């Protein structure tokens, strides 16, 4: 019994000593640390406030709540001003305000000049035209991307893509004098199919009257056309269609231009017959330009040089082919 009591007392002494040592080793928690503790708020499920979905006004391509919605759109670098802007097809004013913003953009394809315009974007050209009508002292810059990783061509793919857009805008009724092409080279993240959905953007700028004056004085160089000829008749081919677009653009920029369509032949056959044949071909091309380009008949003149101005030897088939040509020459008053 005595040994039990001694063991029990020793147990108690060591127990108290252990508790004291444990309490002494624990760090103290100050009042300041309680006040700076970070807590996670719990949302009140009974709240009546509901987050509204992003609303898109599809009638004009603009977000209804422009300031809030723009922060929700993926940002890309502005190719003109080198700043972060919303992705999608956009047009901005000289001060940087948005004229419109579509969720989708104009798609470009790697190594190709073609552009793809989604059906939801088809009215963008009318909005641009309306803005230019309402702001006669501004011009429209077409910013078109191309990459150093793409094929090297002349003119560059950025210019060619913008040219396609320019032609669309001219057909809408926009004066070509108020359109400026701005190719922009930068790295482009083409997808697995070689597509990039934000290749074109628009920026309005103050009208550059000096540029317009210089542009009016610029006369296109003489263009050589090798038409498709079957049984001595001219047939429409891509080369002739390209000449039509070139002539229409030149006349739109300078309405006082005169166009000479000059026919040439090789020296096979009678010289007089060749003169008449070349004149026949020139008149056929003239008729095509006047009717399809809606040009003034007095503005386009058909002429013939026959076989008199060869540019290659008529002794070879290749040389004779080069001599059978149509020249488009631009004349100013």
Describe this structure in words.
The chain is an alpha+beta fold. The chain folds into 2 domains: 157 residues, OmpA-like domain (60s Ribosomal Protein L30, Chain: A); 109 residues, 60s Ribosomal Protein L30, Chain: A. 35% of the residues lie in helices and 23% in strands. The chain has 9 helices and 18 strands. Strands 6-5-12-9-10 form a 5-stranded mixed beta sheet. Strand 9, helix 5 and strand 10 form a beta-alpha-beta unit. The longest helix has 24 residues. The radius of gyration is 37 Å and the shape is elongated. The chain starts with a helix and ends with a strand. About 17% of the residues have low confidence.
Count of discrete structural domains: 2
Q: Radius of gyration, rounded?
A: 37 Å
Major sheet: arrangement of strands: 6-5-12-9-10
User: What is the level-2 CATH architecture name of the largest domain?
Assistant: 2-Layer Sandwich
Classify the helix fraction into a percent range.
25-40%
| N-to-C series of helices and strands | HHEEHEEEEEEHEHEEEHEEEHEHEHE
Name the CATH superfamily assignment of the largest domain.
OmpA-like domain
Which structural class should the secondary elements be placed in? alpha+beta
Percentage beta strand: 15-25%
> In whole angstroms, how far apart are the ends?
137 Å
Broad CATH class of the largest domain: Alpha Beta
Output the CATH topology of the largest domain.
Answer: 60s Ribosomal Protein L30, Chain: A
Number of separate helices: 9
Runs in which pLDDT lies below 50 for 5 or more consecutive residues are: 28-85
Major sheet characteristics: 5 strands, mixed
